[in-house]
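User: I'll paste a sequence; please echo it back and then give the predicted structure.

Assistant: Echoing your sequence first, then the prediction.
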Amino acid sequence: MRPILLGIFAAFFFSVTFVLNRSMELSGGSWIWSASLRFIFMVPFLLIIVLARRNLLPLLKAMKEQPRSWLLWSFVGFGLFYAPICFAAAYSPGWLVAGTWQITIISGSLLAPAFIETIQTKNGPIKIRGEIPYRGLMMSVVILVGIVLMQIENTSHISFGALFLGIIPVIIASFAYPLGNRKMMEIGKGRLDAYQRALGMTLASLPFWFLLAFYGVFTVGLPGSDQVMQAVLVAICSGVIATALFFKATDLVRGDMQKLASVEATQSMEVLFALALELIFLSINFPTLLSWTGIFLVILGMILHSYASQKRTVNRKQPVGIS
């Protein structure tokens, strides 16, 4: 229950990202700065936390052991996740991007065979290759139908090209985030806490963000003061608080791909949180009945997915090794 609650709290703080990204876009800010500034500003906040906990040296030692892996999977987990999310904000309202983002539940389930699970048995722990949780995946179809219903309303007032640019980047991000996160958990082997992992991945992804910022200087110019302040808020709410909560939740179920999928499913609450915040602060139009139906199906799908994922089967594949 604790990982689920942590996941829901993380969803609230993550929802701030979608709202502020849309706000920055509507005020004329570029997605390039919305993306790069968040991670650049995250560094000092996370660094202070890790230093205060006296955990910096173990992190640097772990990063030094596998620098290429840190660079690669941090780029995947943070770079290929957040840059497309910010890009999509230029074409869709925040709550709709948040809704489409819930396809990550399906993406995360499909990634299960790429990882090794540790299972406790009466003969000791064994390692087996993860299985796609088909029961949970079938429940995820409800979420997919909900996303389609929400997008139908969006098609009535934007072009197909804009719709495409608002959806495809989110789908790319939906695979990149769980893939990068799980790979870094695998590399860390439980030695790093949530704050260490968040700081390490942020540091390792900085080359990408600096390159993106450098590109932004010559294409869209420097960001305005309003965008800088909003980017700081995103860095604190989403980059520090939400990321730490989500990483803590996933650490609690590390090695159990089905429970991990349940934690990732809590992120569907971002839709409601983002919608509520946009209604309050951005005065957006109230969603139609069709969109509300889609939102309801997304939340229902999350609940069904979490329930199905906790019904673990006792049948397993042959062990691939002993830990």
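The CA atoms of residues 139 and 146 lie 12 Å apart. The beta strands are 116-121, 124-129, 321-322.
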